[in-house]
Design a protein that fits this description.
The protein has 164 residues and is mostly helical. It has 2 domains: 114 residues, no CATH class; 40 residues, no CATH class. It has 6 helices and 2 strands; from the N terminus they run αααααβαβ. Helix 2 runs antiparallel to helix 3 and helix 3 packs antiparallel against helix 4. The longest helix has 32 residues. The protein is elongated.
């Protein structure tokens, strides 16, 4: 049974219900398009990787949710619902993870503007990891030198270089 069949069985005029659902579809798609546009503008306008990461993930996920809801309301079949649900599920699963990785990479390589950070919760963890890596390198456990964030920013490199 599709949603249309269920709606036809209601004691309400189907034409009115269909018109309301079409109106909701239009509103949802427009809101989703506006949020996606805001994500695109934020990607262009914001100054560093952390701000761009925030601008592209939050409105983009909300925008795609509204657009998918509008598509489901327009088609009203279970097949469309489950396919679009899978699309939304994988977007919700991958967008925050990729944004987190981009943010950490931007932090560690120094591509972000540190003066814009008010509370730096990651600094202590990164310094602790660098200290542990240096101690392990001194004992011979790791034959590499881990550059600091400043050295990575100055050289443009984000990877460790072998010791000479």
């Amino acid at each position: 049974m599709t949603l249309d069949d269920w709606l036809r069985s209601l004691p309400i005029d189907y034409a009115i219900v269909d018109g309301v659902l079409d109106l909701l579809t239009g509103v949802f798609v427009l809101v989703g398009a506006f949020l996606s546009l805001a994500a695109g503008i934020g990607l262009i306008r914001f100054p560093d990787a952390i701000a761009r990461m925030h601008a592209t993930t939050k409105p983009q996920i909300a925008g795609i949710t509204f657009i998918i809801a509008g598509l489901v309301l327009q088609d009203r079949t279970w097949q469309t619902f489950w396919i679009l649900f899978a699309v939304l599920f994988f977007q919700l699963l991958t967008a925050p993870i990729s944004a987190h990785m981009v943010g950490r990479a931007g932090y560690r390589t120094g591509v972000m503007k540190r003066d814009r950070i008010f509370v730096d919760e990651l600094r202590d963890a990164v310094e602790h990891a660098q200290d542990e890596a240096e101690e392990a390198a001194e004992t011979g456990a790791i034959p590499i030198q881990v550059p600091s964030s400043d050295a990575a920013r100055d050289t443009g490199a984000g990877e460790a270089e072998p010791k000479s």
